[in-house]
Design goal:
The complex is a heterotrimer. Chain A is α/β, with parallel strands linked by helices. Chain A has 13 helices and eight strands. Chain A has helices at residues 3-11, 26-38, 61-71, 89-101, 103-111, 142-153, 222-236, 240-254, 259-275, 277-283, 294-309, 336-343, 348-358, and strands at 16-21, 42-43, 52-56, 79-83, 164-167, 173-181, 192-199, 202-210. In chain A, β7 and β8 form a beta hairpin. In chain A, α7 runs antiparallel to α8, α7 (222-236) runs antiparallel to α13 and α9 (259-275) packs antiparallel against α11. The radius of gyration of chain A is 23 Å and the shape is globular. The relative contact order of chain A is 0.10. By secondary structure, chain B is mainly alpha-helical. Chain B folds into two domains: 1-37; 55-116. In chain B, α2 (59-85) packs antiparallel against α3 (87-109). The longest helix of chain B is centred in the middle third of the chain and has 27 residues, at 59-85. Chain C is built from twelve helices and three strands, in the order αααβαββαααααααα. In chain C, α1 runs parallel beside α11. The radius of gyration of chain C is 19 Å and the shape is globular. By secondary structure, chain C is mainly alpha-helical. A two-stranded antiparallel sheet of chain C has the order 2-3. Classes of the chains: A alpha/beta, B mainly alpha, C mainly alpha.
Chain lengths: 371, 116, 311
């Protein structure tokens, strides 16, 4: 018995997939998620956890460079596929395990990979406009500033500089680090990039960037989109089982599940979310959260889905698109500047919650352009 | 055999098991080389090393914690003699704990248990 | 030491790994059921994941503190095994320490260092934040945990696990120290960074301390995390659940059965609650839980003082 072959077969039964959603291709990503779950596979949180990189939708050249950089971070065995609208999702996914099992191919791939600095590092994040660069904060004496510049010039291992200092909000000297979130990040909006300057895990400054959407792409039905938003928020809030329930409902909506199958489950989830005291407690306590509180927004999304799905409530003659917008979604930050102000002063995990709480309404359809 | 020797034996065994697992991994994995990659920042290039002076905003809490942590040194020996000494031991320990709790209440009022 | 005992000592790591696998399998099956994935894929998840991670290439990062990073990764599972070694299975204890309870405490404090080093070693932003979040959480659970550990020690008048078990012949400690037992169970979840206390590995910090781990290094951490959960559940048996006491079956079997029952509770806990953010937990832990546990201690101490020993 060939042991390596046996291990390879066992090892590729549960593929971890890192999904990349090109802006505008949310429907494709949701279909991929459904197919992944159906196979008993797993969605990876990052490249270290991934076997396969599945890109949903044709990426722009800027996004492509980012995808290349993340691809470099996936350990072998690895495989990368591009999923396009109209392509066969099932064939594409089914081809992955065979490639991962292909030992000679993976060995060759593993042998030839090197970290080539300056080239393979990926794009450099732009400097944020508010002067966090090199820690030139206000009120610092020139001598300090010179020190800092020397710090920044000093190259650490692998040609990456060490963190430089800055004054924190209490006037203490603090190291500043930078972290860019998105667009390639699990449970993160595909069209948002957030360049953050951090003191520890506190966002002291940020710059948000919204990526453009292509036109004329099929969007998921409203109910599926709202369920997706809710599942994402719960996932970021660390309630995986509840998020899985919602994700499953989303898949069923996409697959055209019948109302009498969907409705009882939806009601159960909705009442579970409403009743959970720990969720109420965990989603509150974020100071200065813009717009409606996170929990109210979440419940609003789920309630809107109930209204959309419930035949007793749907009046086919008078469907006003504006009626379907959860009330909470009409009052929330959507412009890059709003987002920047919303996250400054928050800790990283809270930032993730705030972003997940934005949902995906803002850029979906022209029918809500009455704002 | 001394129980501490048993512990050492088990520790040795654990290390051997981890070593064995590494050998097994070496035998079956696609590449023996450890691949060097950049930290995951959504594909963007890191601007500096992550290791830095971290802003631990909960440092007031660490001081309260230390007070109680040291208190535990007395707690364990005390637990053993409660039955023997009775009321005397109980009163002494809980007066001490009450004093520490006053500290907790003060720290609470000062906002040491909240940080954002 | 006789040969049978030696053989038994060697069995401990195997037993811990097996139970960890069973726990992961049960948890995987529940997840698969919720998600609508094939149930079988959930049950077999530990096997497939182990093979997958063994076959996967290891990673490192520029400027990573490799030695400390790898020590932390391998250490988590070892701490779990070292905790289990002092647990009595009936009259048999693999390492009969006179201070077995303090040993458990020492090992669980070691987890502070290990989780944090795991986050530190990678030299990656997400990992580092994950490591520090564990510390913030640890500041909240550790003191209640240590007080909860003291309760059985007062009840038995000893720090030796065999004595603590023996003191429960008439009445299990969980009956008259319910609050201490509950705090202990919650702390087990917290030091395993599991369920509502999974802050160090949360999705909100991109996987946190495991964000940069692949291959065997990841296997050791994720497996070790289940092992720590098993060790914590197993320790609740001699502390609060009467140890090996039970009808018909041998004491050793009862210890394992009770451990499994506690583990089932811990798995369920993960399904019921979202993650509790450390900055929210701190205030509750210090202002509500610590005083409550102290009241529990006072009740136990007064009962023991009046009664001259355990109930």
């Amino acid at each position: 018995m060939d042991v390596t072959g046996l291990v390879a077969r066992t090892a590729t039964r549960r593929v971890h997939v890192f999904l990349v959603e090109t802006p505008g291709f949310g429907l494709l990503r949701m279909l991929a998620q459904a197919a992944i779950a159906e196979r008993g596979w797993v969605e990876a949180l990052g490249p270290a956890d991934a076997d396969a990189l599945v890109v949903c939708g044709t990426p722009s050249s800027q996004l492509d460079r980012l995808i290349d950089a993340v691809w470099q971070q996936i350990p072998s065995p690895r495989h990368r596929v591009l999923l396009e609208p109209g392509g066969s999702l099932n064939d594409l996914l089914n081809s992955i395990p065979a490639v991962l099992r292909d030992d000679p191919r993976q060995r060759t791939d593993a042998r030839t990979r090197r970290l080539v600095l300056d080239d393979d590092r990926g794009p450099a994040p732009a400097v944020t406009p508010h002067g966090d660069d090199a820690g030139s904060g206000a009120g610092m004496d020139p001598g300090m500033e010179m020190d800092m510049d020397m710090d920044m010039d000093m190259s650490g291992p692998a040609g990456i500089p060490l963190a430089g200092g800055d004054n924190d909000r209490d006037g203490l000297e603090m190291d500043v680090t930078h972290l860019t979130m998105g667009p390639l990040l699990a449970e993160w909006p595909a069209d948002l990039v957030l360049h953050c300057s951090l003191h520890g895990d506190v966002v002291v400054d940020a710059r948000a960037e919204l990526l453009p959407w292509p036109d004329n792409i099929e969007q998921p039905p409203e109910a599926a989109r709202l369920l997706d938003d809710a599942a994402r928020l719960l996932s970021v809030a660390g309630w995986e089982p509840a998020a899985q329930q919602l994700a499953r409902l989303r898949d069923d909506v996409l697959a055209g599940g019948t109302v009498d199958r969907l409705l009882p489950r939806l009601r159960r989830v909705a009442s579970r979310l409403r009743r959970s005291r720990s969720l109420r407690w965990s989603l509150s306590g974020l100071p200065q959260t813009p717009g409606t509180p996170l929990r109210a927004r979440l419940l609003d999304w789920v309630q809107t889905v109930l209204d959309l799905v419930d035949p007793a409530l749907v009046d086919p003659d008078a469907v006003d698109p504006a009626q379907q917008i959860p009330a909470a979604d009409l009052r929330r930050p959507t412009s890059p500047d709003d987002i920047r102000l919303a996250v400054i002063g928050q800790e990283l995990a809270a930032t993730r919650l705030i972003i997940a709480g934005l949902g995906s309404r803002s850029r979906v359809s022209g029918s809500v352009s009455h704002e | 055999m001394s129980p501490y020797l048993s512990l050492l034996l088990v520790l040795g065994l654990c290390m051997a098991a981890v070593g064995g697992l590494h050998l097994l991994g070496r035998a079956v994995r696609v590449s023996r080389e450890i691949v060097e990659v950049l930290p995951f920042q959504s594909g963007w290039q890191p601007r500096e090393h992550a290791l830095s002076r971290f802003h631990a905003r909960w440092y007031p809490l660490t001081l309260v914690f230390l007070a109680f942590d040291v208190e535990m040194l007395f707690m364990y020996p005390w637990a053993v003699i409660v039955a023997e000494r009775g009321a005397e031991a109980i009163v002494e320990m809980f007066v001490f704990l009450a004093i520490l709790m006053v500290g907790v209440v003060w720290a609470w009022r000062e906002g040491a248990f909240r940080w954002m | 030491m006789s040969d049978p005992v030696l053989a038994a000592v060697l069995l401990v790591p195997i037993a811990v790994v097996t139970l960890a696998g069973v726990t992961a399998s049960a948890n995987g099956a529940l997840d698969a059921r919720t998600r609508g994935a094939p149930l079988r894929s959930g049950f077999t998840a530990p096997l497939h994941e182990a093979a997958r991670l063994l076959r996967q290439q290891r990673r490192t990062l520029p400027g990573a503190d490799s030695l400390l990073w790898r020590i932390a990764g391998a250490g988590i599972g070892m701490v779990a095994v070292l905790k289990v070694v002092v647990i009595p299975f009936g009259d048999t204890v693999f390492a009969d320490l006179p201070v077995g309870l303090v040993w458990f405490n020492a090992m669980d404090v070691l987890l502070w260092a290990l989780w944090w080093l795991l986050g530190w070693g990678a030299n990656s932003g997400w990992s580092l934040v994950g490591g520090y979040r564990f510390l913030a959480q640890a500041l909240s659970y550790e003191i209640p945990l240590m007080f909860a550990l003291t309760a059985p020690a007062i009840g038995a008048g000893s720090l030796r696990m065999l004595d603590i078990q023996a003191a429960q012949v008439d009445l299990w400690f969980v009956v008259w120290m319910p609050l201490a037992a509950l705090v202990f169970a919650v702390s087990v979840v917290a030091f395993s960074s599991w369920g509502p206390f999974q802050t160090a590995l949360g999705t909100d910090v991109g996987g946190g301390v495991v964000a940069e781990l692949s291959g065997i290094d990841r296997l050791l951490v994720l497996g070790g995390r289940y092992a720590v959960l098993v060790a914590g559940a197993a320790f609740s048996v001699p502390l609060f659940l009467g140890g090996g006491a039970g009808p018909v079956l041998p004491a050793g079997v009862w210890v394992v059965l009770k451990t499994c029952a506690v583990l089932a509770g811990l798995i369920t806990l993960r399904r019921l609650f979202p993650t509790l953010r450390p900055e929210r937990v701190a205030e509750i832990a210090w202002v509500v839980v610590v005083p409550l546990v102290l009241v529990q201690l006072a009740v136990v101490a007064v009962i023991v003082g009046m009664h001259g020993g355990a109930l």
